[in-house]
Each structure stands twice: as C-alpha cells, then as structure tokens.
Task: structure prediction
Amino acid sequence: MKHFPENIAFCYPWRSYQKDVLQNLHNHLENKHLHLVAPPGSGKTVLGLEVMIRLNQPTLIVAPTLAIRNQWVNRFLELFLQTEKAPNWISTDLRNPKFMTVTTYQGLHSIFQDAPAKDESGAIDDDIKEDEEMLELTDRQKAQEQLFKQHFQTLILDEAHHLRTSWWKTLMAFKDRLANPTLVALTATPPYDVGKAEWDKYIQLCGPIDDEIDVAALVKEGDLCPHQDYIWMSMPTHDEKEPIQTFHQEAEQLRDSLLTNLDFKALIESHPWIKANDYIEEKLADYRYFISMIIYLKEAGSDAWEIPFALIHESTKHIPPFNLEWAEKLLTAMLYRDKFVDSKEEPLKSIKKQLSSMGALEHKRVKLLATKVMERTLLQSASKLDSIVQIVSLEKQAMKDELRLVVLADFIYSEDLPKSRDAEKPLIRLGVIPIFEKIRRELGEQCKLGVLTGSVVILPKEAASLLKEYPFEFQISPLPHDDHYVMIKTSGSSKQHLVRIVTEIFSRGAVNVLVGTTALLGEGWDAPSVNTLILASYVGTFMLTNQMRGRAIRTEQGNPNKAANIWHLVCVDENAFNGGYDFESLKRRFLSLSGLDEEFPFITTGLERLRLPEATLSNKIISSINNTMRLRATNRNRLFERWKEAVHKGERKREELQTDQEFVPRPFIFRNTIKSLLVISLSIIINMLYAMGESIGQSHYYQSDNLLLFQLLIGLVIGIILSSPFWWKALLIFLFNSSIESSMKQVGNAIYHTLFDTGLIQTAPRLNKVIAEKMKDGKVICYLEYGTTDEQKLFLQCLQELVDPIDNPRYILHRKSGNHFWVKHDYHAVPEEIGRKKEYAETLLKHWNKRVGNAELIYTRTPEGRKALLKARMRAMSSKFVKKSERISVWK
Result:
C-alpha cells in the first residue's frame, strides 16, 4: 500500500481557526515541518489527521499515552472513515506496523533502548506501564527491521512537549534514518520554561512554531468554555510552622552576628579582591560574590568597600542592605569556592559549624532563605487538605446538583486508606487517598465522592450499582471503614474500559466529586462535564498545569452556559519576603496560563491578572484574598459575560514585554544633547565674535551700534548653521523620545531594524509597527503589531535582554553624559542573537545612535572590555535581585 484510499474526508465543517491553519499549510510545510501550538479542545487531532491525509504517505503517529494513542485511531474511524472497525492498514502494534501506525513515545523508545525511559515529571504514571511490559518482550532488532520496512514519510508527534526526556534522542535517531520525512509536531504547551539548550533541542526536532491557536479564539468560537483561575491560600499547620519559624530566627541571628564579627570583617577587608583593583576575570566570573563583599563591608561599618566600589561610578544610595540573600551569596562563595580563604580555619570553621547545626548547608550551598525541607513542607503542606474541603463545600453550595468537580494529585498513597473503622489516622500529606479521606470525613453527606486512578477505584455504593449496565468483568468489595463506599477491581484490558465507564457515571452525576491522579486524568482524559478543577499537584511544570486545566475548559454538549472554575492551592510562608517557595512557583506557572483579567476586560497571562493586593502575605491578607476568591468564584454568570466582552473586544493573541518605566532606556536629553547643542552653538558664536572683535579693536572704535548688532546677528546665524548637524539630531531625538513610551518605541525600533537588516527576521519595517504604551499602573509595554510568531518572540527576547540587568554578553552599549564634575554612565547588553557577529552589533549601534542617542560599542572579551563589563554588572547589583521585565501573552 502506497497511498490512502480515495475519498477519505473529514465529515464535519472546519472551525475558522482550523481552516486558517489548513489554508497556510503549503507555506508551513516548505521546511518539511509543521509545528502547531493549540490548547486542549482545539481539534489538534483532527488537524493532524487531515494533514496526514493531504500528505498521503506512510505515517507513524506517536502519542504520550495509551489512552491518547487509542484516541487517534478512534477519531480517525469516527470522523474520517465513519466506521467502527479499523481496516487492516491501521496498526497500534510496533511489532506489526502498517501503512498508518499509531504508538506511544515509550513504545517507540523501548525497541531502540535496553531500559524503558521515565517521564521527567516525577509523577506516578498509571497509564503507560502496560506498554512498557508489552515492548520489553519484543525482539528489538526484528521490530526495528519491520518498522523501517514501512518507509514512513510522515511522522506525527502528539503532545510534543513530552520530548524533554531521553525520548528526544530516540526520535532524533529514528527520524535521521528515514528518507527526509515530513514532521508534524502538535502540542498545547511548548516547553517555554526550559533553558536555551533544551529549547534548541526541542526546536531542532519539531521545527520553529508555525502557528499558534489561542485559548481566547476557541472561547470566541464556542469551542472552549469561559473559565477563570482562582487561588486558595493557607498557612502551614502548627507542626509544620514551628521548624520554619525557628529556622528564620536562626538565620537572622546569624546575619546579625556576621556584622559584629570582627575576625570575619578583617578576613574580608584583607581579601585580594578588596585590597587591589586586579583579578578582573575572577570578579567577573563570580561578580555576585564580589558585590556581596562590598555590601557587607559597608553595613559592617568598614571603609574598605569604598575603593572597589569607586570602579562603578555609582551613587552609594543604590547599594542594597546586607540581607539574607546577600549573606547566602557571601557565605556560599567563602566556604566552597574562594581559593584565598581557608574554610577549615577560624572564623569560617565556627560559622560553617553553626550553619550545619541549622540545617542550612545543602550540596555545597548555604541556604538562609529556605531549605529544601522547608520548600517541600510548603508544597506538600497538610493545610492544603483543609483548603480542598473549603473549596468543595463552597462549590457544592453554589452549583448544587450541577457540580462536577475533579481533584488531581500526584501520588496515590493507598496505604493511607484505613483498614477498619477504628484505624483512622491523622492525614498529614497530599495525595489521592488522603484527599478522599479528608472530604469523606468532613463532607461525606454533602457530596457523592469517588476515586479514579490506575490502581485504586472507589465509588459510592449507589453509583456502583450502575456498573451492571456495562458488559465488563469486575469485582466489588465494600470499604472496610465505611460501607457507603465500594472498591472496584479489574484487570487487563478492562482497566481502560473502567476509566471510560467511571467517567460516564461521573458525567451522569452519580459521582459529583472525583479524586484522581494527574498521570491518568491530567492529560488526554475526555470529560466535558467537568466544571470545577482543584489542582493538588505539586510535581508538574507549567506544561502539566496547562494540560490539567484543559480537562475543565472543554465545552459540554447541551450546556451552552458552562463556565469552569480552576483552583490552585498555595501554602504561604509569611516570614518570607516573596511569600515563600510555593507562592513563587505559582507565579512562574501563571506566566503561561491565559485567563480573564479581573479589572480590565481582556485575556492575558500572569498572576497579576488576578489583581491580588501588593502587600506582605500576613494571616489577615490571606483571609481577605480567600474571601475575594470566594465571591468571584460563586458568580459564574459574571465570569461568562465578562469573557464574552473580552473575546469580542480582542482580535488576536500577541506577545508583549512589560517592564517598569525606570528600566526603559532613555536618551540623556538635557545633559547630553540639548546641553551639547547650546554649548556648541554658543562656543561658535563666541569664537566668531572674538574674531570680529579683534578686527574691530584694531580700528579702536565702533562705527555704530547698528553695525555691532548686525555683526552679532551674522555670528548667530553662522553659529546656528555650523552647529545644525548637532542640534537637528538632538531635536529629532528629543521629539521622538518626549515620553517614556516613545523612548521604549525608539529602542524597539532600533532592535527591529537591526534584526531586519541582519536577516534575522523577514518582515520589512514598513510592513510592521513597534507599539509602546504606558499602563495605568505605571508600567510600560511594548509589542509588534504584525509579524510571524517566531519574529515576535525573537523581537521580544532581544528587547528583554537589552532592558534587563546585564549578565555576560559579548558586546555592551555604553552611554555617558555630564561634565568634568559629574558623569552619568549607562550600560545595556547587546542581545545574544545580535551580539553573535560584530557586524550585527555595529548595525544595532548605528540604529541606536540614530534613534536613542550616542553610545559606544564595547567588546567584552578584551581586558578593557572585561573591566567595563564588571562596572556594568556591578551597577545592576546582581540580576538575581533586580526586578526583571516580563513577557506576557494578551488577547486584544
């Protein structure tokens, strides 16, 4: 078989955004890749199948799990072939591949590797174990031969973000052995949060992103339902809080003792980095350590910091206090990296012993803000069990019989299930069974509670009676500690049927609160009736979070007014300035989650859209936030109407860079340009008058006052003409940089023209527009009006690198202004993509000088350049503690 049978076609009309992708398919496939980003529920599967039919070649489809693998086959039979029986040219068995073969990443990996790979998420996966066992019995060499005999020319990767594991190597090796295949990569969540090296690997296989369908577009079309993310905050339990508070107190006491430790101060004062202006390379390699010494010495009352600090030409008021962050940097370097000090000698020996007794030493790092134990305590806090109970109670009162609530956790902890009525123990960890038990004990009579995992299935006794309607084998046994519930057991292929059947029972309302694992239900699980989701997962990345959210935001047939609530649990450390590790993790995850802004009618990413109070997260503030969330969550009609307003106001998704106005590069308008104009003009005029004065003086008299005035006017006109190159440029720069947002626009234009001139982007500046706006909160945003997805991402990446604190660029832009008594210096990193080549960096300098003002380009890989880079880095006072810009997605 060389081609698909004729007249295979999708049996429904295409949605508008699907039609757009297909219309541009020829352009997308020019590089033999199609990389499509689209949220769950957008019809990625049918798009992939349509592309497969149009390419009309032997096809291998690779999916992350057995359930999703089977979904591909079922969708093809139902929506394209319109039959229930699969033809003999479709296979899901790698030992017997056919013209169209569908498998899993794990299955493909297992015939090329000796040991099965594990997903990096760390979650227990109930779903792919059967696949591992099946393929471990396969003769790998024979299976490989059979696979390559099919001569696959189309390779479809579903949920391609799973390639962050060793599966990537297997797929790259497999693809390289095929004869130039066309690769189609589909995902809802590209791994945006990985490092550059890992992102480059992802793009190497999947190709650049060709098209991206936004959640707002699907809500606008009615293919996803309106939804909102809410957070429920808690404090650690009493037993959890006590060691955390003790650690914070000991850390502060240690910091205070360092400032009064004369031996420690003398050790730093005598350090070669402080005593001499040499060791530039070493200071650059560990410049945060160098800065921490200066900060410590200043706060400890020593004068030794003044000479090294003079290098940076900066005001002392910008030196931050010696807090715990800087103490961590200082002590970590002194104890484990510094060749000039001996940590086995005093005073470091005693300090290290004190740190060890506190539990503040981890893998050759000093931890004074939070230890791994504290981080785990917050992530897995038992207080979240109480949060879940409060949310379930709240949602049940609001939704009544319409409630279809799912709680997703990472681990099962089946051993926490009591063996008898008298064996109930305190619940102290976050998992499926502890969550089930907590809800059962406190809300058992208010809701119909069930459990669905790959190994444990529990249903109310009334709901279990519905199983008799389905023809499959199973065993029922009552829970020993509560005969209102029964446990369902089955084996083999019946496990897959059981998931489908319990899902149907849940949709019918015989179960309205279902607790399950992220591995089984977090991705690919199809249950459109879910209208409330509680994420009790703490293992996954934002990719998994997005996948889990996708379970709740699907539309439900017969329920046009569906709106979904998605709850995130967070345990706050009130003693931490940033709310603690769990809250910081939540902020990072929200950067990728699109949702409704609570103040303005538009869809955007980031935690800021929830409009939380900017205050220390005390017990009172936490209670206020939870009450606010409670009021919002119970008003689903308001949520539905505001989504309708937002999606119809907006037209498309765009990427924006958002930064505080103080970090926007601005020309030195008064001190550098306007002042220079006046000085140059006046100096020319004075010189001409002096020359004329000498001529007049020779005759010892003025012929008349009118002649003197005429000569002054001539001098003025000539001075203006001669200085015109200076004042004309200054005037233009002044006009185009008259406000913060206009300055941001000019910086953006300098970058955009550079990217175009160097061939890094293809859309000409005349066909695009850099837009900058100042928001009501004082922040400045910048974005491109047009351009491809890749062009927008590259532009914003370069802009972000330029406005953010300097790290280690190849080139920097240096600007200075002032006079002999006072000079202002300003440094900006040349973005990495532009700094790769000298001619690229010089192109940026040309556009910068034209639009922003005069600057010089410094190559940082020379001795003089290293000194300049050190100054630039020190001025940033360590990028870790300077607020950076943020890239957000907005539907406007």
Remarks:
- Confidence is low (pLDDT under 50) at residues 116-137, 669-674.
- The chain has 35 helices and 25 strands.
- The longest helix spans residues 705-736.
- The chain has five domains: 16-213, 227-237+381-651, 238-377, 669-735, 737-891.
